[in-house]
Amino acid sequence: MKTKIISTIIGITASLGLFAQQDVSFSQYFFNPLYINPAYAGSRGVFSGTMVYRTQWVGLEGAPTTESVGMHGMVPNSNVGLGLQFYNDNTGPLTTTDVSAIFAYHLPLSDDMKLSFGIEGCMDNLSIAMNRIALENQADPTFNAGSASAWVPDANAGLYLYKDRFFAGFSVKHLLQPNFGMEGDYSSTSAQLYRTYYLTSGFVTNFSENLGIRPSILLKYVQGAPIDLDIDASLIFYNKLYLGAGLRTDKRIDVNGMDNIVVLSVEYDVANLIRFGYSYDFYPSHDGNYMYGTHEIMLGWDLNCNKTRMTSPKYF
Hints:
The chain is mainly beta. It has helices spanning 2-17, 141-144; strands at 47-55, 65-74, 80-91, 94-108, 114-129, 147-163, 166-173, 179-183, 188-192, 196-203, 205-208, 211-222, 228-237, 241-254, 257-270, 274-282, 294-303.
């Protein structure tokens, strides 16, 4: 029993020590670019929003689940974009929550290109529920004493260059590098979020009137970890149906070196108003016997207050 307690404590300590790596890497980051870059707020030109649900490593008990909701739009007759965002992630006894407000300013560079500057103010919460850990001795006071929780302020910032068929962005999350000093019934502990850097770009080109392609790339770096690289491409049919595939380098290391993740996705746009998306990612050489990949479901909307419907598609 003592060995199990020690192992559990070591596991929790390791999780806190690596908390800087705990920002979720959504399988299809363009389902909700606002999560990566606050400068995206207002870039669609309408009141837009997304809801994303992610369940990771299906088949493993206590595997992470994540919910994200983001809404944003342009202030009428201005170059100002505003947004709100909510994020919640559960991994075993750890829960992280983020609530934020976003301001972005869009500077016209030409008739069809703009550069946006965005800043996001956040309140982050980390909580640990020790009584959610399954033990042989459920009466052990070390783990049944309750939970610890802390709220801290944080900030994100970004740049976003865009036009109808192209975008490029750079952003930094956790500018304040907040430290969670938590006091609970069982102990006191701390964890810290380190700055995370994102570089993204993508474009759309057409093969014919009803067939196009949308390649995109994302680079992510956080202190003390390898660079994450996402490379994706989606075929676009009739400006409505998107079928995509991608590859992501992963931090997990096996005997053959760094592992990779394959991502498959589908998205459908209904009358340029409602968007439905689904993605599935998996480790080609490891899933199957003990886990069944990761699933994401997205619902998005674009509401134009000046017109009954949008006349052109929004690719990003």
